[in-house]
Amino acid sequence: MSAASDIRGFDEREQSVAAPRLPEGGAPRNWRETDVIRVDQPELTMSERLYLPQIFGGMKTTLRHMFRKKLRDETVVQYPEQKRVLRKENYRGVHRLNRDEQGRVACVACFMCETACPAHCIHIEGADSPWPDREKYPIRFDIDELRCIYCGMCEEACPVDAIELTPEYHLVGASREEMIFDKEKLLMVFDRTKDDKPRKSPPITGYP
Amino acid sequence: MSAIKITIDGKQIECRDKIPVLQAALEAGWDVPHYCYHPGLSIVASCRLCLMEMKMPNPRTKEMDWSPRLVPSCQTPVKDGLEVRFDSDKVRENQSSCMEYFLLNHPLDCPVCDQAGECYLQDYSLKFGEASSRMVEHKNKNPKKDIGSKTLLYQDRCVMCSRCVRFCDEVAGTGELCIVNRGSRAEIDVFPGAPLENALQGNVVDICPVGSLLDKDFLMKQRVWFLKETPSICAGCSQGCAIRIDHNEGVVWRLKPRWNPGVNDWWICDEGRFGWKYVHDAKRLDRLIVRRGAKEEMPDWSALPEIARFRLEQIVTSDGADKVGAVLSPFMACEEAWLLAKFIREIAPQATLAMGPVPMEGSDETFPKGNGRDTRFTIRAEKCPNRRGVEMVLAAAGGSVVSFDDWVKKAGEGAFSAAWIASGSPKPWVTPELEKALGKIRMVFAQDLFANKVTEAATVVVPSCSWAERSGSFVNVDGKVQPFEASIAPIEGCQKDGNFLAALCGISGLYNPAKIRELMSATMPAFASPHEPPPMPAHAH
Fold first, then answer.
1. Helix (H, G, I), strand (E, B) or coil at B132
2. Which residues from chain B sit within 8 angstroms of residue A128, using beta carbons?
3. Interface predicted TM-score (ipTM)
4. Residue A79 backbone zone (phi > 0: left; psi -120 to 50: alpha; other: beta)
5. What is the CA radius of gyration of chain B?
6. CB-CB neighbors (< 8 A) of A208 in chain B
7. Best mutation site among A111, A114, A139 for testing chain B: the one with the most B CBs within 10 Å?
8. Which of B27, B98, B393, B434 is the most buried (most CB within 10 A)?
9. Tens digits of residue pLDDT in A56-67
10. Residues B175-232: tens digit of each pLDDT
11. CATH assignment of B289-359+383-528, given 3.30.2130.10, 3.40.50.720, 3.40.50.740, 3.30.300.130?
12. Model pTM?
């Protein structure tokens, strides 16, 4: 097989968009030779090859932080006596399930968070709601906080802003079972954090 | 039937005669939006979504030209030389106006609607509609209606395609549903005191293109995008309807019909649709049990071939090969029945085979109801999927084959020292005669779904799987060999019947029903070409 038939040139590419050329005995290639960017490794200078100047350069930064009080106080936090100041609006800590104005769970059990969750850590069971103004509500809502990767996709997927991540990050448990948060526990997180971080945006769907 | 040539969007296609242009376009791969048109129902052309442009003779010049008015493609029959187009601004404008109109009063509650994900309002408004609505007035709000024991009506979401009304009139023949009021106040309803209660009512949920009619059984259970679909054959009766099993993480959630012309067309009955609940029954047998006197042992499945072979061979050497009997079940797949017959005949060539009792309930129920109407759907009285298949297998097995009553009689006279009794029936099936005869059989191998007198008396209890966990083929009432696939893995402790039966026969490797069918076709040519329903056109619904 000649090189010309293997590598698709510019003019050829314009012609044959419909039928990709198959390299002999292989799967169709989905990249072109022109897509490849070749990067040459830069030659190291004498001082770079010694490595010592870089080591001393790094040590300089370390020592500067050690001896300058102002820099040290900005960087080091004496946890747990001292707590870090968080950006509460978008810190992604433990989940909570919001309550509506009447104190009911705001979730409508649409399974959007479960669908969006890349870690598959949300498990919902929906049912006919006991309230006349709502169609569906969750009878079970479990989040495996150990499996969760705190990406915040559930929060983004929620059409009623019922699930939110809170600034709470000290999450401890004595067993795995304890770390699977059910509906009640998630509502408790809301009660605990609602003053700190009120429910985000107004409802957009007409559901309370 | 001569082929008709028509031109759609400048492309000439060949199609069948006497079908609407819409059907021809769908079959040729066009995605033409439609709600009210269903090939199994009469045509009303009420949704106006499928309108097309058509060439007609200009009354002044007598030349063929695009007609200024759009025509419904569902109501226009194909004709040789017809030229139509969907790919025009006029058609697209109509589609988008129609979609806006359908969504005027729609509550946009997709997050809590069970239809979301398989809803043609969603699909069509994405493909053919506009992103925003110009509606500024308050939307009409309609409460949901409980119209029957199995169906809920959400009038808010309805597009008034009247498919459900026509289904009840034309296929079920019971006509419970009707359209009340007119214009923008029109709604689907039932007559007072006459709820939707026919044996086919689940189909109105299937044909509803939107989330207006929903199954109470499946309501709010799962979102449809989590479900995996496996093609299967209904095991409820001998009609052999093609179905689809929707399941997720090893749990069956619902059954839906598959198009199978000549067998069940587009429909299935409620008995089949909701009759799968025994699959997840907690009382199912779920372990292999070998009894030695009063002691019960639970050996590993890999030990079963050796145990069965050894014990049966012992009986054959001590009592003779004619002292072995076997009861095949009309609930078994043909392949499983064939494997079991093969295994028994290998060990005891003079063994007496029979087929277990065929459950009959009443008589065949035909639809539509009403005198003098052509039958469009039948629910069979024979409540087992595979009587004919097992009969074929028994006929091909040759040797001593008797009826079940005779078999029981012989067993009662002490003719068998060992017997393999298979069932897999979801309902109690053991007859009092068989119960009495069991005492005369020294060693019983019971292969069944649920505990009963046979499994109690058995030396070896082999738990069976439901049809949703098995694979093979059923032969329906018309003699069609219809393969089906396993949708979920067997429940904990069980094995696919085909697997252990193949192991009993010494067939190595995984149980492959297609391979077994190949072997079977040597004596039974019907199994060489099983019946597969044709695929639905991609954009038809």
1. coil
2. 219-220
3. 0.82
4. beta
5. 28
6. none
7. A111
8. B393
9. 999 999 998 888
10. 999 999 998 889 999 999 999 999 999 999 999 999 999 999 999 999 999 999 999 9
11. 3.40.50.740
12. 0.86
